[in-house]
Amino acid sequence: MNKTELLKQIVGRLENDYKMLLMAAKSSHAAATHEDNIPDSKYETLALEASYIAQGQANRAQEIKMARQAYRTLSLQAFNPETPIRLTALVLLEDEAGKQRWVFLGPSAGGMKLMFEETEVMVITPDSPLGEQLIGLKADDAFELVSAAHSKEYEIIQVY
After folding, report:
1. In what order do the strands lie in the sheet containing 113-116?
2. What CATH number does residue 103 fall under?
3. CA distances (Å), 21 to each of 12, 31, 54, 56, 81, in order?
4. Quick count: other Cβ atoms within 10 Å of Cβ 51?
5. What is the tens place of the pLDDT at every residue in 54-107?
6. Angle at 30 between CA 29 and CA 34, to 5 degrees
């Protein structure tokens, strides 16, 4: 897999998400400050609710802006079977049932899923439970991911 193209796709997705959230925040701000939404009584809270929404969207847009910058300046590392997993690793995992999944270890935007080269890739961060488990492991290593609900065993098939 071409990690350079994957990185471009991640940055593009973050740029689109940022633009969308900025537009949504501006729309919510306009609703919060529109003259028709000025409350006539203490029970009319539409403007207040819209301002909370606008602030939340602006905060999320700022997070995405910071993530976008982190990915724009990210230096991709090359991995071989003997290289320990760290930031920028693209990892193929296989669970005990034989189901495979690709994960990309990035600095932020954990949970983002992308279709890349006809395969779903999930971005994870080193702070996530899966990211914490992967750091320092190598191809062919196995590990168990334990949560409150269940545990699952994985084998690292490939690392790019």
Report:
1. 113-116, 119-124, 100-105, 90-95, 151-159, 142-146
2. 3.10.50.30
3. 14, 15, 9, 10, 40
4. 17
5. 788 889 999 999 999 999 999 999 999 999 999 999 999 999 999 999 999 999
6. 120
Q: Is 78 a member of any domain?
A: no
Q: Are residues 99 and 154 in the same domain?
A: yes
User: CA 104 to CA 35: how far, in whole Å?
Assistant: 47
State the amino acid at position 39 in one-letter form.
P
d(CA 16, CA 109): 13
pTM here is 0.86
Share of the chain above pLDDT 70, in %: 98
Number of domains in the chain: 2
Could you list the residue range(s) of the whole structural domain that residue 153 is in? 90-159
Strand 151-159 versus strand 119-124 pairing type: unpaired
